Amino acid sequence: MRTPKLTFLALSCAASLALAQTATAREFAEIYIDCGLGAIIAPRTPVVAAITNVTFDLGTTAISSNISSPETCSGGQARMATFVHDAYESLEVELAAGEGKYLDSLTALAGVEQEEKTAFVEDVRKQFAHSVAAADYTQQTLFTKAENLYNILHKEMENRS
Fold first, then answer.
1. Are 153 and 84 contacting, i.e. CB atoms less than 8 angstroms apart?
2. Do the beta carbons of residue 143 and residue 134 sit within 8 Å?
3. What is the pLDDT of residues 85-98, one digit of tens each?
4. Are 63 and 133 in a shared domain?
5. How far, in Å, CA of 66 to CA of 140, rounded?
């Protein structure tokens, strides 16, 4: 259910973006489409991605991810985030087992070289085990679980860079 205040804020932000100078609007539009929650939820639907970012937190997450980790706004990271969300249940099972086709796809999306794959998966499994062992794990939403796994993956990718 949308409140009039939320609808007004979303429309105000959209209007501000539309009225900004062309170069600035293009930059903001790219941020709102390629970064934040919108990029995770709707990577192939730019309008939905932008609306999601504006509606969720007025674009704060998209802007902060653009500033703090712009590499996560690129297409590869968005594809990986989408894959983690869409295949979370299968990834959860395969991470427990240490192998599987979804885990193979995930390491490919993460850009892990074949010779690094075993060590990468083991490090992710250790961190993921802590996440799954959290007292509130069973109450977490799919989005929260997928976000936690994505953050583990991203951290591990940064450690290997």
1. yes
2. no
3. 888 999 999 999 99
4. no
5. 26
